[in-house]
Amino acid sequence: MFEFAFGVDDLATTRLTYSPLQEAVFSLRARRRPAAYPHYRRWTASWEAAYRELDAELLDALVTPRVWVPDFLTPRPAGRRPSFESELAVLAATDPAVVAKDFAAAYRGDGAPLPPALAARLEDPAGLLAHCVEQVRGYWERCLLPRWWPRARAVLEADLAHRGRMFAEHGAEGLFAGLSPQLSWNSGVLRLDDPDSRVRALGGRYTPVAGRGLILLPTLCGRGAHTVIDPDEPPVISYPARGTALLGEHPAPQPPDALAELIGPARTRLLLLLEHPATTTALAHRLAVTPGAVSRHLTALTAAGLLTRTRTGRSVLYARSPLGTALASGRL
């Protein structure tokens, strides 16, 4: 059990964002336990050749057998929408002593021995850190950035938009309760219960937020809410993002004949795909067409009252309106 105590002003400094670096590192969990992350199977298969050109042994070792991750690999995001490069720069500036400490803590908490790829390199933690940075960058550029990240970012943006609405409509208790069944809010204390016995052994911890600001991070590769291993680190909680199943490479749905006759096949497919909010780029990727072609149809559907638009940072998320949902479900 972990408890985070909120003072009078701490809710005002609680924020939601996502971390490209965290998602890159956490995606390595899908290699450790593919059965637990079925929405990653086609992705990992598609980039296997590129992955093998990197130091696969080291990258595999960044995640323990029970998918624990050393804290230093996922630094606390400094901005509202941090870039991968800015987060990688923070990672590269890590104190080498922290690298050794965090690897030891993660594998000790997991109950697994350090793999040879790490044990030999820990004698030179500065060199190990530099190699980790180099390999994570290569993994991002060769495997994740070209096709996976546009889809992943759209899912994360949609989650943030939903959580913002939950907080506005239901307050802190409604927001926290909706993040994960493991989280509960009572009288200014946010409690995180973890079913993993090894994680519970680290618990019993009472952490005052104390003006440091709690950060809530949706992740596409998490099976429950979790926090950092080191209790001295500023408070961060990761939770499973909504809509992770959208990462699966499923073909675009075929439009029902009657609906396609009414608004056309292309616009019908878009309406069906927008069961969860998405950006123009993500929709274009799923339909294998240009963003310009998708944009024209989205504009028409929005003008007809079938979609809504929400700007989040530099992105625009489209979602079905109540009318669009009724039309897509055949209730009209």
From TrEMBL:
Keywords: DNA-binding, Transcription, Transcription regulation. The keyword Transcription applies. GO terms for molecular function: DNA binding; DNA-binding transcription factor activity. Residues 257-332 form the HTH arsR-type domain. InterPro entries: ArsR-like_HTH, HTH_ArsR_DNA-bd_dom, Metal_resp_trans_reg, WH-like_DNA-bd_sf, WH_DNA-bd_sf. This is Putative ArsR family transcriptional regulator.
